[in-house]
Specification:
By secondary structure, the protein is mostly helical. The protein has three helices and no strands. 68% of the residues lie in helices and 0% in strands.
Length: 69
């Protein structure tokens, strides 16, 4: 089969979708995830300062962040 049109040449490309949120919804979701990461990092540091081991502090920080959703 020979490629005869530009569209046929690009038919392997996935169609870009934003899940119906649009660009602002996608940006909002992105910044929300960044904020959650900073909150988890702060909880982790707080847990470490209270004498928890690194693994336990990380697990507890992520558990608290997940429960917040």
């Amino acid at each position: 089969m020979s490629t005869k049109t530009y569209d046929q040449a690009l038919d392997f490309m996935p169609t870009a979708t934003t899940g119906g949120r649009g660009p602002l919804g996608t940006a909002r979701q992105f910044f929300s995830a960044i904020t959650e990461g900073f909150e988890a990092q702060a909880r982790y540091q707080r847990n470490l300062s209270r004498g928890m081991g690194a693994s336990e502090a990380a697990g507890k920080a992520f558990d608290e962040t997940s429960a917040k959703r």
